[in-house]
Write a structure and sequence with these properties.
Elements: H1 3-23, H2 26-39, H3 44-57, H4 63-98, H5 102-108, H6 113-135, H7 141-144
Helix pairs in contact: 3-4
């Protein structure tokens, strides 16, 4: 599949998601979910932390979850929940990527000289490469994990 086909598919996917979000009661769903978490009492932060781990592994955006956590728990506790959840999610995504998904990803990018170069650079200078890619806003955080 060529780059143009991938861009067309990605564009159609983005349009489909936007249409669904605009026509589905997503706001109501989020409000109900936040009410449910609020009713969990002291278990709420634990549930949200687990959700962060899941979003990190499944490459889902964590921004809506971050806003919800801040809304429910305020800045100090919300920051702690988000920080722990993101850290555990990054660790879980790393473990999945290093173990279960490594072969699949390697087969998918085997023909790409760019990915081979990145893999070689990470093997030689892992800390510097990871640090520099984390500072870049071009590559999504969850994808880097």
């Amino acid at each position: 599949m060529g780059k143009r086909s991938i861009l067309i598919i990605l564009g159609l996917l983005i349009v489909a998601v936007l249409v669904l979000v605009l026509h589905l009661p997503v706001g109501d769903w989020l409000e109900r979910a936040l009410d449910w978490v609020r009713q969990l009492g002291p278990w709420g932060p634990l549930v949200l932390t687990v959700l962060y781990v899941v979003t990190g592994v499944l490459l889902l955006p964590g921004s809506p979850l971050t806003v919800g956590v801040g809304f429910l728990y305020g800045v100090p506790l919300g920051f702690l929940i988000v920080w722990i959840g993101n850290t555990l999610g990054a660790c879980a995504a790393f473990l999945v990527g290093r173990t279960m998904a490594r072969g699949w990803v390697a087969r998918r990018v085997a023909g790409s000289a760019t990915f081979r170069a990145i893999d070689h650079a990470v093997a030689r200078h892992g800390f510097k490469i990871v640090l520099l890619t984390r500072l870049s806003h071009i590559i999504p955080f969850n994808l880097l994990n």
